[in-house]
Amino acid sequence: MATAQVPGRDGPLSGVRVVELAGIGPGPFAAMLLADLGADVVRVDRPGGAGLGIDPAADPTHRNKRSVVVDLKSPDGPARVLDLAARADILVEGYRPGVAERLGVGPDACHARNPRLVYGRMTGWGQDGPLAPRAGHDIAYIAVTGALGMIGDADRPPAVPANLLGDYAGGSLYLVVGVLAALHHARATGTGQVVDAAVVDGTAHLSTMIHGMLAAGAWQDRRAANLLDGGCPFYGTYETADGRHMAVGALEPRFYAEFMKLLGVPGQVPERDDTARWGELREVIAARFRARTREEWTAVFEDSDACVAPVLSLREAPHHPHLAARGTFTDHGGIIQPAPAPRFSATPTTVRTAPARPGAGTEAVARDWDVPALSAPPETTPPATRPPTVPRDTPQ
Question: Nearest Cα to 121, choosing from 73, 163, 49, 178?
Fold first, then answer.
């Protein structure tokens, strides 16, 4: 008989306990990454859910977690969260600055119960500054950092990179790095701390190399005029005969030479380093790509070092031969989703459990974390004496 899998058993963070105060965007993704790495993540959901209208059972960002439901506005709601915080290593929240404090679960209240706790705060604007109390979304955060202004064609508005650049690269990943660094410090010193992870800070940090190039005069502060922003004709995308696209990244001379050989450009073309004639070179390359379909060009380049790849859709990506061979995507419970990353030789990670349904893990968490009050019915008070309503959180 197979042994039942328990969240937190597998992966390098096995044994680490994390409390996630439910929100939207980068906070839940950061908690998913910690769960993928083996942490026992308990998501504290609010009654009625997050209000996004997405079925939690179909949302992979809830995978490898367990869920309890706590009404933080009920008289005993904060105490239930503090009981969890007292037994946790990390707590992650994504409220607007000051909201967790007003709800009674801010850093001071949590550290009074658990001085070793790493308290991770995920916001868009950060915990201070003129915009800290304001609402926002990924697109606004990356706009003010200069990152959005780098993306897209020169003669069109900046292109929107979904919410991957700000929310998840500049937000979630920096929060995870921060709380794990703080956890290392807490285990060495016995002292926890607050980690202020702001999307604006992380996104700005991602552009460090570009700022170096700008300072050195190797980057023009405008779109589609540089080596890595689509301005270069051998680093960009091209339409094929069937209306699909190929991506070209043949930056180094030897890769460029192989690219041009396989592309089969007839006659003389402008030199690759003659930036004044990049427009002409782009037209020549574009005309060649329009002569064949995406699949035909994929076959031409697939066994080469020309640094060319087909541009696939989300549904196509899991079937790419390389990604399929590596198991980059996985099917768990009928949901095709990215597999945990990165990979570990001694403590492999996996999708252990399906997305947690709100409240489904209450009894198990109450037992495993030794918080019996968690499974007790919540206290209620007459409406007239209930605490005033406060903003629960913000989009980041």
Answer: 178
CB 250 within 8 A of CB 235: yes
| C-alpha torsion 22→125→110→52, nearest 10 | -10
Tell me which residues are annotated as active site: 137, 167
Q: Report how far apart, in Å, the C-alpha atoms of 129 and of each of 26, 58, 132 are.
A: 20, 37, 5
Cβ-in-10-Å burial (0-12, 13-18, 19+) of 257 comes to: middle
For residue 44, the 8-state DSSP code is E
pTM for this model (two decimals): 0.92
pLDDT digits (tens, 9 = 90+) for 293-332: 999 999 999 999 999 999 999 999 999 999 999 999 999 9
Residue 325: Cβ within 10 Å count? 8
Got the DSSP string for 73-131? TSTTHHHHHHHHHTT-SEEEE-PPTTHHHHHT-SHHHHHHH-TT-EEEEEESS-SSSTT
Sorted by sequence, the CB contacts under 8 Å of residue 299 that are 6+ apart come out as none
* Lookup: tokens for 102: 């007003």
How many CA atoms within 13 Å lie on the side-chain side of 121? 26
Pairing relation of β-strands 17-21 and 329-332? unpaired
DSSP 248-271: EE--SHHHHHHHHHHHT--S----
Contacts of 137 (CB under 8 A, 6+ apart): 124, 163, 395, 396
Yes or no: say if 201 and 147 are a contact pair by the CB < 8 Å rule.
Answer: no
The rounded distance, in Å, linking the Cα atoms of 198 and 126 is 4
115: its two tokens: 């001085």
How buried is residue 385: exposed, middle or buried, by Cβ count under 10 Å (0-12/13-18/19+)?
exposed
Residue whose pair of structure tokens reads 């190929």 in the numeric block: 246
The pLDDT tens digits for 161-171 are 999 999 999 99
Integer CA distances (angstroms), 361 to 69, 80, 314, 369, in order: 9, 15, 31, 11
- The torsion defined by the Cα of 14, 84, 353 and 48, in degrees rounded to 10, comes to -160
The answer to whether 230 touches 236, Cβ cutoff 8 Å, is yes
